[in-house]
Amino acid sequence: MTPPHPILSYEAASWIADLARPRLVPTTGEHGEYLALSYVWGGDQTHKTTTTIISTYEQGIAPSLLPATIRDAIYVTHMLGFRWLWVDSLCIIQDSDAEKRHEIGRMHHIYRYAHLTIIAASAESVCEGFLQDRPPPSQMAFSDYKAGGEIIIPFICPPTSMRDPDRPLQVGTVYITPAYSSQSRWPSTADLGRMGKRAWCMQEYLMSPRSLVFHSQTLYFRCLTATRSVGESFCSTYEERRIPNALFRRDPPVAAPGSKEWIEVYRAWTWIVEDYSSRTASVESDKLVACAAVAGQFHAVLGSEYLAGLWRSDKLLADLLWDIQRGKQEHRHIRPAAYRAPSWSWAAVEGAVRWNFPAWEDDGVVALAEIVECCVTLEDAALPFGQVTGGALVLRGTLIPCRGMRDPRYSEDPEEYQIALTSLEQARRLKWGLDGGEEEVGSMELEHFANATIDCEADEEIGRMWAAPLLREQEWIRGIVLALAASPNDSEPAHGKIRCRRIGTFVSTSLRLLHDTGLEHPLWDPLIRAIKLKCEEFPLVDIVIV
């Protein structure tokens, strides 16, 4: 194993002496075991490695310049009997873009091949440290168990074998604590404090085969097969995030598309994105960059081309149905100030997303559109999982003119957003609403309704929008909501005349209501029939989504 370059090292005397002489050591060509540190910066670092100070740091770093979290990590490294520690602010030259691009491209190696990652989950910033005392839980009273705390009782362990009945029984300990209380929830591996909200910290957590997590309430060890509390502490593993073990193989075989292993890894990616999308990066443009290492590992097994957070596969059409997840954050979703990803990618919005698409294995799922082409323009060709400067997806489908609204006559929930749609015949007669302006849309007979989720609040007021149905799932129609996009730039191919951007998703459940009464839906049933029969009267059109 080749450690990263450079590595923070110290003399192995006592831990005080270690703090007196930590220094940077170039390790090109050397081999050895090392530890890595995962932590929250909490702002720009006053003391970090730059091109002007690297030679000074190689001679030694004054302990007073090191923040508490890094000092604590050096102490833990020494106490575990190791000599080398990798810390990003000190082991990456921070004022060299070329150096940072190089290190980002191999970040998965740094944490993947670390002997252990120290995760400072209890520290809100690098200045706080993480070796504070964790007070034991308070005593729980059965008369008021909702107040929290725990009760410790002895437990007689059953014999391991009936063949030796004379073997003395062992007495263990059982900790009883409420799952929820009015004070706090028990310690959980799903709760990483501020680290659980930071984009860069996710890949460090997931890519580490072994980690020692300093939780705010407890300490636990995590490896590929289990999670164990240290000492007599307790930590719930409910909702713990993991990536498939196949991704940790040195040279994992590429899974066959559609195979059980491929689907397992693909689904794991959607779960990871649901967690990751709720996290933020100090630099908005880092959203794709900060998960590049994880994406690279998934690519090794999926074998599919990476498209700004999605994968080129037979599931790409369903992938377009990602949905914003409300209730997981206090503010509404927004779009980054500068371009970050094409609108069909979840990375185009700031906030938590989720997938509600059906399983393709279900015979009741029918495609109502097809993807003709999809491409992205990378900022750096050497970073295929990193930042993009453009992208376009060509969808061959149907555009149904619609108008967004919140109307209490159709929903008891004041937050429920709906779209009102024309009939298929009216849409065809008005040339799919592409030739007229907002006045023409306002004069249309909007006869049908569907529940919609708009990605960003600012897009709810758009006058001209279209529903593009993608899938029929049993008696449901799922699709995306589009609006016209600005004229193309040089980094995006201009296919066809209809150029749109995604602004949300919709789902129509009215098919079941009509079918149960023996009636045909005047919009969806003719559309499904026309697509199935390839009716020239209702031709599919190529829509460029950017």
Quickly give the structural class.
Answer: alpha+beta
Q: Percent helix among the residues?
A: 10-25%
Largest sheet composition: 8 strands, mixed
Q: Provide the low-confidence segments as ranges.
A: 10-17, 490-495
End-to-end distance? 43 Å
What amount of the residues lies in strands? 15-25%
Radius of gyration: 28 Å
- Biggest sheet: strand arrangement: 2-1-4-3-5-8-9-10
How many structural domains can be distinguished in the coordinates? Answer: 3
Domain Heterokaryon incompatibility: 34-204
Organism: Trametes pubescens
Pfam families: HET
InterPro entries: HET
Structure explained in plain terms:
The protein is of the alpha+beta class and 546 residues long. Helix content is 21%, strand content 23%. The chain is built from 14 helices and 24 strands. The chain has helices spanning 15-20, 54-59, 68-79, 88-91, 97-105, 107-112, 199-206, 260-276, 292-302, 316-319, 424-429, 438-443, 510-516, 524-533, and strands at residues 7-9, 23-25, 34-38, 84-86, 116-119, 151-156, 171-176, 211-214, 219-222, 227-229, 306-307, 310-311, 322-324, 353-355, 365-367, 370-378, 388-397, 400-405, 417-421, 448-454, 465-473, 476-484, 498-508, 541-545. β9 and β10 (227-229) form a beta hairpin. The model is unreliable at 10-17 and 490-495 (pLDDT under 50).
